[in-house]
Amino acid sequence: MSRFWSPIVHELEPYVPGEQPKVANLVKLNTNENPYGPSPKALAAIQSYDGDQLRLYPDPDASDLKQAIADYYHVDSQQVFVGNGSDEVLAHIFHGLFQQSAPILFPDISYSFYPVYCGLYRIDYALIALDDALVINTADYARVNGGIIFPNPNAPTGRFLELDEIDSLLKRNTDSVVVVDEAYIDFGGESAITLVDRYPNLLVTQTLSKSRSLAGLRIGYAIGHVDLIEALTRVKDSFNSYPLDSLAIAAGIAAFEDNAYFEDTCQRVIQSRETVVTGLTALGFDVIPSAANFVFVRHQREDASVLAEGLRAQGVIVRHFKQDRIVQYLRITIGNEQDNQRLLSVLHDLITD
Ligand SMILES: *Cc1c(COP(=O)(O)O)cnc(C)c1O
């Protein structure tokens, strides 16, 4: 605390990211990173980059990357916005589209960065409770609002909301922006990008951090109507003209060009998820059906924080949110085959001892 701070800094409640431990050899299943590493073509793009070019500023519009993304989704590059991770894209959305007179709406159990942006940009919000099975009920969003946002699949539940549900939400809600945060869409969901041409108030965000295994490079994007993209561009150009560096742009393009690697690694994660679900169920966990690269689970008898600590003592890190309704749940990222085996064997020892 300091008297030199801007008044708002005293009020901020910053997001707490999952831990990035400095210790080696941990089985790290706490931040939904991809176990398989980026596309070799993306890595080659960085290695072959002419380092002397780094004296130049990057393309402020990252237009080649936008084009690669637009080609992949069959949209116009003018419908694409890119940023330094989707967290930055989300920040610009809250700033540029959600500062409205009515409160914005999002689920009570959801990505914990949303309320943080509301604090930063002084946006009112109302939490809409998931039902008892932790499902988003879109009818509950039929009220006056300044915007709606939810992840699909939801985080941390992993549950996927069918596109026809999103479609009916959009039919009812035409006077504010609806954002579908698709950070995990490639692990078995169906993207709402196919709906953007029908709904000028729909914005879909995605990231290269999860399914394309480039969390360290920081690339996220939004796809929607050109008028929404223009708002984000205006905010971006009033904040940082060069959110993506030259290496990120080069590797991002290469990642979108390597579809075979992308599909193969997503399939491996999906298959491992089935193995992990079977193993956890056999150990007495209730597992929420997941379309993401993590599972959200509750043991029928054991306490979640005791299990999280027991795992940690054996070098396996999972995420435990100390939030009322979900305090008995653990969020466990799907790792590689070896990580998953280790997870299940440590849990087996903890539960049967
Ligand atoms: C991981 C995640 C993000 C942020 O992704 P970055 O592109 O790495 O900033 C956004 N939304 C949700 C729901 C996430 O889980």
Structural features:
three-stranded antiparallel beta sheet, 353 residues, single chain, 2 domains, Aspartate Aminotransferase, domain 1, binds pyridoxal-5'-phosphate, alpha/beta, five-stranded mixed beta sheet
The radius of gyration is 20 Å
Query: What ions, cofactors and ligands are bound?
Result: pyridoxal-5'-phosphate
Stretches with pLDDT under 50, minimum 5 residues: none
Tell me the CATH architecture of the largest domain. 3-Layer(aba) Sandwich
Broad shape: globular
CATH topology annotation of the largest domain? Aspartate Aminotransferase, domain 2
Oligomeric assembly? single chain
Order of helices and strands: HEHHEHEHEEHEEEHHHEEHEEH
Count of all domains: 2
Ends distance:
47 Å
Task: Explain the layout of strands and helices.
Elements: H1 7-11, E1 27-29, H2 40-47, H3 63-73, E2 80-83, H4 85-97, E3 104-107, H5 114-121, E4 125-128, E5 148-151, H6 163-172, E6 178-181, E7 202-207, E8 220-224, H7 226-236, H8 246-257, H9 259-282, E9 285-287, E10 294-299, H10 304-313, E11 316-318, E12 329-333, H11 337-352
Parallel strand pairs: 1-11, 3-4, 5-6, 6-7
Antiparallel strand pairs: 2-8, 7-8, 9-10, 10-12
Helix pairs in contact: 2-8, 3-8, 4-5, 4-7, 9-11
Bound molecules: pyridoxal-5'-phosphate (PLP).
Pyridoxal-5'-phosphate is lined by residues 85-87, 111, 151, 155, 181, 183, 207, 209, 215, 220.
